[in-house]
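Exercise 7. Given the components listed, write out the predicted structure of the assembled complex. Treat all entries as one system.
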Amino acid sequence: MDLHSLITSRSDAGSGTNSGTTRRSFLKTAPLAGLVLGVGLPRFGLAAEEPQKYGGDGMPHGLQESPKIFVAIAPDGTVSIVVNRSEMGQGIRTSLPRIVADELEADYKRVRVVQAPGDEAKYGNQDTDGSRSTRHWFEPMRRCGASARQMLEQAAANQWKVPLEQVEARNHEVVDKKSGRKLGYGALAVAAAKLEVPPRASLKLKNPSAFRYIGKDDPTLTDGPVIVNGKSQYGIDTRLPGMLYAVVARPPVLGGKVKSFDAADAMKVRGVVKVFAIDGTPPPSEFQPVGGVVVVGKDTWAAIQGRNALKIVWDDGPHGSYDSASFRAELEAAVKKPGGKVVRNDGDAYTALAGAAKKLEADYYVPHYAHATMECPAATARIVNGKCEVWAPSQSPQAARERVAKRLNLTEDKVTVNVTLLGGGFGRKSKADFVVEAALASKEMGGAPVKLTWTREDDLHNDYFHTVSAQHLEAGLDSSGKVVAWLHRSAEPTILSIFAPDPKTLAPFELGLGLTGMPYQIPNVRIENPEAVAHTRIGWLRSVNNIQHAFAAQSFIAEIAQAQGKDHRDYLLELLGPDRNIDPRKISEPWNHGESPERYPISTGRLRKVIERVTKEANWGRKLPKGQGLGLAAHYSFVTYMAAVIEVSVAPNGELTIPRVDVAVDCGPMVNPDRVRSQIEGACVMGLSQAVVSEITFKNGRAEQDNFHQFEIVRMNAAPKRIVVHFIPSDSYDMPLGGVGEPGVPVVAPALMNAIHAATGKRIRRLPLRDQLSAPV
Amino acid sequence: MTTLQINGKSMNVDAPAETPMLWVLRDHLGLTGTKFGCGMALCGACTVHLDGEPVRSCQTPLSVAAGKKITTIEGVGATRVGKAVQNAWLAIGVPQCGYCQAGQIMSAAALLQKTPKPSDTEIEGAMSGNLCRCGTYTRIRSAIKVAAGMKGDA
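Answer.
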């Protein structure tokens, strides 16, 4: 770098808020070590004297905020701001630098964004998932910018030999308030870099009324220009001199292996260079590759053609009989029977149900989904002098670095993970399997650079799929129609299954995604989690278990209201009860997204407000002709409050159109309102895909969908004509931030099915909708 | 050796005649703006213009492209319509991850070249072959109208 860096001293590198020793010792003793990275569990199992840490402090490697890590200023005044999180469409390469630049009083036109490689000891936690980036990094990045500003002010005051109070940073220069003389940031950089970072207590954060970039509704994107002119660099776009291209034939069944293979025909394909097998990690394989046969060619097409010519005999192993149709029957039978692990138990729901004046019940099914990021997994690796360098669209570059180091038997300092733009992530690219594959391929090729690309078929066959679930709900009503008992039973294979042998019940971080934290005012609540076995790799997919939990609960509440002829909105608000802050621990939800229960209680008042706002904006209650309807759903997830009203029109042949969607969101203070809006618009479309067309099914252990003709996602003609996002303004930037990337998804399927019921009288309890409206009842 | 006319430049490629243009552009010529999404003409990420017509480069063999005028995302900004589309994309803040947007822009530019003031139905007809997993469709629709000098509804 030709920059004159503010970072000359490395003395503070690695001095994060978490002691590395403590975390490493935890990793050694924890039975499910990989989870710590994957989900940022609060650090359960620490020595008793250590206080529980929350938010970003509770994540592996915690937070960093020194400008010596994140800010560099060149003599010409160009300010480089390091972004430590991965860009996958949420706008983080725009939002985080704006926070720093604002507190720094930088002119954003003179800001350059630099992507950090995977190095959590230096940059703090980089695991870009869980809707956490802005939520956890808003405050540290503010302090980072403020520190840098104060260092520049101090440097100017020193040079002019005037008191610090006499100078002020304004728009990329420091001004002497008395004389009016000025020094640009470039001229001050060298002197400022020699100063100590001011202690946190001495920082003067801006008054939010003086914000130049934070909270401003501006659609400008850091990477916008290169995205529209084709110069953007995604993982799949990496090019190195002498690079080879690889694809892999992977076992189609969980735990499967290559029994034998014949590469003779593959080697005859023009451009194929080498064919070899790589070992997989047997289940639970967490983020490591599943193995298979690698074909290396002079271009991607040659490698694909070579793979097509391979003859492979697979040993499928015990999951070779996985059939999602019969598994569905198994799960549905499991949730019909009382029992399973009791994960919440308020009062006595069974007795209250038995004595209820009226009882309702319903069953819901949500299938496996694939992430289907538009950019398939792809990574490039080379090994030079015992050092492995990779370029990858990774949501979690530190996790990738650790996995590559482990598999190549290198120490971590010998592995560099450069983070490219991600062509979609949604949770898929927090897994490093494809990165390790590229490293293994390069190793086999003597360290030559190899780009390893997954085809769409690979992506759909070997994803870390969204789990499959069956849910059974029962409600007991008293004679006035009030819900006195709520029983929710859900069976779903757990994500823990990629980390540990045969776990059969959900982890706290899955229960906490919309199941146990049910906030409605019901005296008797019982939530049960019967066992379910995973027969494929299960992973996080944007909003994760909330998808099925919100679908079931928000559909069921609408069903209860409708069974009594009551207005859904009014009934939902009544069920919510008076405004109150619920301590999540008191409703069997200790996980609380890793956030402090004091700082982040569950506020029924905030949930009420989004319901009221969205129904007002959508003109709820208006009369619509037959075949048209409005549907409502509300859900709290990732410490954000969300409600949606979807308007549908269903033609007599069952064809569905969606003229308008209204969404109200309370995510606390916002850094980048346009990106909040765009995330919610996008979540709406993704939620619709899940509700209407997408599904992965299994036969003989194999995913049956090969490409987008079978794993469908919503196209423009089926997308809503309008999506209108309404913000609930936040009182203050001192309020805690909520997540944004994921919480837009869960409300979509229930709001849609409630709308379809309003339009047609048909109640859809199985996703996806597909032809359920045109099929005979 | 095959000679191609790409973005107004003559380029030589040594690849089998059946090689899809997608991989010729990306792997042989380093024009990585054209994206791989499905390999089966199902997603539109690889859309380029062949003599002004939008085609899926993953299904267009090198032999078919030879002798025709090829425009990719790297070159479409040289046309008035292409530039207008790119500018509208930025003004509306269309991209999220951005990966599919090269194909979206190529489809939109081809649409506006032929139909300067498209109706909603014409927009959907031209654009429904382009998938966007981030779900930017409402903004794409608006941006096309902005590029066409019509009123967007975002």
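Discussion: Chain B touches chain A through 61 residues (CB under 8 Å). Residues 101-114 of chain B form the longest helix (14 residues).
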